[in-house]
Amino acid sequence: MAGNTDMVAFVRARLADEEQVALAAGGDRWRCPADVPGEVHDRRGGVAFTVRDSGFDHHIALQDPARTLERIETHRVLLGEYVEVAGLDTDRPAQDFGSGRAVGLGFAVRQLAAEYAGHPDYQARWLPRFIQ
Question: What is the pTM of this model?
Answer without folding.
Answer: 0.85
